[in-house]
Structure formats: C-alpha cells, structure tokens
Amino acid sequence: MALVVQKFGGTSVADPEKILAAARKAIRAQQGGNQVVVVVSAMGHNTDLLIDLANQVNDAPPAREMDMLLSTGEQVSVALMAMAVHSLGHKAVSLTGAQMGIHTDSSFTKARIRTISSDRIRKLLDAGNIVIAAGFQGIDDEGNITTLGRGGSDTTAVALAAALRADACEIHTDVDGVYTTDPRQLPEARHMSQISYDEMLELASLGAGVMHNRSIEFAKKYDVPIHVRSSFSDVRGTLIVSESESPTSAVCGAAMTRSEARITVQGVPDVPGSSLQLFKLLANQKIDVDMIVQNVGEENRADISFTVLNEELKKATAVVKDAVKLLGATGFTTDNEVSKVSVVGLGMAKQTGVAQKMFHAVADAGINIQMITTSEIKISVLVARGQSQAALRAVHQAFVLETTPRDAVEWTELPTRKASPTDVTKLLGDLQAADMEQLRLSDISLSDNQARVTLSDVPDAPGLAAKVFDAVASAGVFVDMIVQSCDGFQGATSISFTIPRSQYEQCMEVVEGLKKQYQIRRVTGCREICKLSVRGIGLRSHTSVAIGMFDALASAGVNVEMINTSELSVNVVVASQHGQNGLASLKKKFAENLN
Ligand code: ADP
Ligand code: ASP
Ligand code: MG
User: Fold this and answer.
1) Does ligand 2 lie within 6 Å of residue 10's CB atom?
2) Is the beta carbon of 151 within 6 A of some atom in ligand 2?
3) Which is the closest atom of ligand 2 to the Cα of 152?
4) What are phi and psi of 296, to 5 degrees?
5) Which pLDDT value is given to residue 290?
6) CB-based contact 399:385 (threshold 8 Å)
7) Could you say which DSSP state residue 191 is in?
8) Which one is the CATH code of 254-399+444-593: 3.40.50.10800, 3.40.50.620, 1.10.1040.10, 3.30.2130.10?
C-alpha cells in the first residue's frame, strides 16, 4: 500500500471549515488506497500571537520556554484535525513531536532533527488510522520540547516522508505551487511546473517563504519528491525534484529578503584570522551572517561588509563594537534600511553575461547597487529598502520570468523514487543511527587557474557594475566570482572579481582603460590566485562551515582574499602559493564530514 504525507500550513487550517476541508482531503487520499500521515501547522497566525504574548511578559523570553509555548499551537491543530476526521466517520490519532519520536538536538527555537523512530506511526497506520502529526516540534535527549524554526512544519513533513519512505509528499498551502517569485509581491509571477532541489533550496534561503529551506535539504538528501499544491483545490501544483523546469534557462526565479541590515567593519588588519575572529564572535551570539564581502584593502587593512536580518542588528552591533577594539579595526558603519534581491538558476553556471544582465536591469531602473555577491547558481544585490520592490520587478522582467520557457518540462505523473534498493537500505541505516541533519560534504577541492582583479575607491553611482562588466564582457573575459562592497570611504565602492588566469593581462588592460572615465582611484590585481571549495548539502545553514574554513586556513597561516557562500558550496580565494597548504588544512578539518 502506498504511503502519502500531506502537510497543511497555517492558513489551510485557520478555521473549523478549513480543518474539515483538510480532513476530507486526507480521507479521500486514504480511500484512494493509501496510508496517510497528515502534518499540520498552528492555526492561522497563532504562532505570531504566541510570540507576541511571550514578548509581553519578557523582553527576551528564554528559548526553552519559548519552545514550550510555541509547540502548543500545533498541538491544538492536531487534536482538532483528528476530531474532524472522526466526525467524518474515519479513524485518526494525533501525535505530538515527542510522541511520534522526532528527536532533535537542544538548540531551542532552531533545533535540528537527529532521528525519527517511525514504529509508532507505522503501527497506527497499519491499524487503519490516519495519523495526524504535529509539525515544527520535537524532543531533545533530556525530554525538553524543541521547535525547528519558523516555517518548520515543512521540514517535519519532508523528514517524516523520508523516514517512512513515503511514496508522495504533498505540501498543501495557500498558493497552488511555486512561482517565479512571491506572487504577493509581483502579480506577474508565473506558476512553475517543476523546480530543482538546488534552486528551491537557494530561493527558500533567499526569501521565498513558500518552503522552509531545511525541508529541501532533507528532500535532496533522502530523495523525496515534493508536490507543492493548493489546499483549496485539486489542481496540479509544482514538483520539487532533481531536475530544473527548463534545461536552457539561466535563471528560474527571483526572491527578496526585505528586512536586512548591513554592517561594514572598516580598516581591519589584513592578516590571517581577522575575519575568523569577527565571525566567531557573531556565531557565539547565534547571529546568522549573510552576504559577506571582504575587500582587498589598502596598507594591509581590509573592510569587511556583511548583512544580518534587521531584527538581529542590535545584537550584532554590540558584538561588532567589541570586535573593532579586539581586532584593532578603525571603525564600523551600519545601514538598517536595505533589502536583498537575488536571482537563482542552475543554468547560470554554464552561461556568461547573467550577472551583467541583472546589474543592467537594476541600473536601468535607476537603482543603486550597494553590495554584490555571486555564487555558481545565484546572484544577490543589496539595495535601499524603498527600492527593493522595483528592483525585484526589474530583474523579473529582465529574465522574462513571467513567460514559460519553450523547453519547460510539463509533468503528468508523480515521479517515483530513483534511489536503488541498496541506497535505500543505506539511507534507512543512516536514519536510525545518525543525525539526519548532520552536515554532509561531498567534496573539497582546489582550482588553481584563476586571477583576481580589484577596482578600489570608485565613486558609487547607479549603473557602475553594469558598465564595468559590460566592458569586461565585450572583451570576451569570462567572469566567475563577483563581490562589491560599499563604504570603504564615504560614497565609494570597490569591486573584486575572478577571471581565468589566461585572460588576466587582457582584462587588466580593459579595466585600466576605464579608470579615467569612472574615476577609479586604484586598480590592483593578482595573477595567481586559487579557489578552495567545500561542497555539500545545506552549507549556509550550517554556519559552522564558513567559520571552520576560516579557522583551518588561519591556523595554516593562509589569508582569505574573497569568500562566497551558497547552500551548495563555500568558496574562498587565496593566493596560489597557499593553495595546496590550504587544501590540506581543509581536508583535515572536515575529514569526518566527508562522504
Ligand atoms: P503555509 O502556512 O502553508 O506554510 P506560507 O505562508 O509559509 O504558507 O507559504 C506560502 C506563501 O509563500 C504564499 O502565500 C506566498 O505569498 C509566499 N511565497 C513566497 N515566495 C513564493 C514563491 N516563489 N512561490 C509561491 N509562493 C511564495
Ligand atoms: N507554526 C510554525 C510557524 O508559524 C511552523 C509552521 O507553520 O511551519 O512558524
Ligand atoms: Mg510555511
């Protein structure tokens, strides 16, 4: 008998009618010959209301108590859902996270799932019950209730689908699938027929709230196809699987994180370990750092810019104040009115000119780009918050995302799992023994054929990046990593990028030619740099990876010149002479996480 996991989000169980409608869907699935596990979220905005309540009695509620409180939201929904199934004449049993055996670590409010013991669920299913599982929660080794982070019910659903080897995992929500961008932001967004795990993972981490990013890590790791569809109808939704919707499109979607804040630490002594200390201090306070841009500095000093979520700015500022003293930096600036706009696509790894197109779109809308980071499948720019919506629309238009690509895949049947029986046994072994969300690295590598070019102290004006990369592209130079940061000096910016070593001289000539026209104060470069990459699943949400890399490299005396991070890989640029040494130190550091 096939097994289906159906997840219903908050709006889909917001009132008694909706709960009954969801119960009918589950019953229909059971009558179709399936065993059914239903995962539910808290009703409507209940979680927000509970957070609000907590803040009214305590400015900084203890995380353990927060989880105790928040888990009640889902407990209400599972009980009501089970009652609804009963009222419709069918059997159902509700279970909390602890009751169904979801064991997590003890990082309250953002706990990670370690193991799931599926025995109890299986017994209940075999006895003809629909099992109603509380999303978003688990239990730690001491028996404390934990929660998985906002939006975490998606992760419960996919993790259960993995542990139970379900045949289908359906995410029922208030949209009928995944769109090219949030349809609430841009009505012209297009419904996608399918999207790859890697693309969805990046989009989710870059602000596409339709799926919890960690749920996609599970899906990818344990080969769970996901069907995102509407709670309110039976129309076909979007499949999240290994392959993209269109094999030739460079970009599949765009996303925005509205409430970001930027911090720039100025004049950091450019010696191995400086960035490490800064990011370690932030990680100790559990502050997630996002876009990181380190500038190649003057007089052996560098500027390090990064972004954090706006709500964490206060905490981050306190840490940075101390860090400035500790590191002997010259000072820092902050801006809490910024947003990040990103485009994502597996296809961009194979095409040139994608970044340039994005910069053009933003420039043509008259919007200044304050920071840039790129990785193999995403490009992010930081813009003033008031212009973020316009920037999102401009890039959505530039990549013609509202139109279905000609080679878009249209699926007709749900896919079956691809994993072979031996893979399945291995995975199930893992599920019982190991940490399901443990960091798993697939490879650590060195590519030693690149060069770096840096333009410093360029007056910051809309269109600058577009113009620079136009000139570079028309000379046929292939640009890989790009970073732009702001604020080295008031109103000045600096751009670094990597290119093939064989094009170094040619590129320097082009850039020297731009110096006068754009009042670029300094052009520097390094003919011999190399890129060290650590690849795996869910790297960015494991902040420890970037820190571990800095740590290993600093102890080996290797200075990091540039860094970029994505969900798929963390890359650092170092001088070629340190390549082998750096590689060895990373391999040693991550030995036990390598597959
Ligand atoms: P649920 O309560 O069902 O988990 P969420 O509110 O978490 O629902 O997620 C659904 C919402 O995600 C949609 O209403 C939509 O506004 C938003 N969203 C953001 N990005 C996208 C996207 N790319 N495609 C579809 N919906 C998106
Ligand atoms: N109820 C939780 C939240 O609102 C989890 C979820 O809905 O996925 O974040
Ligand atoms: Mg959600």
Assistant:
1) yes
2) yes
3) 8
4) -75, 120
5) 87
6) no
7) B
8) 3.30.2130.10
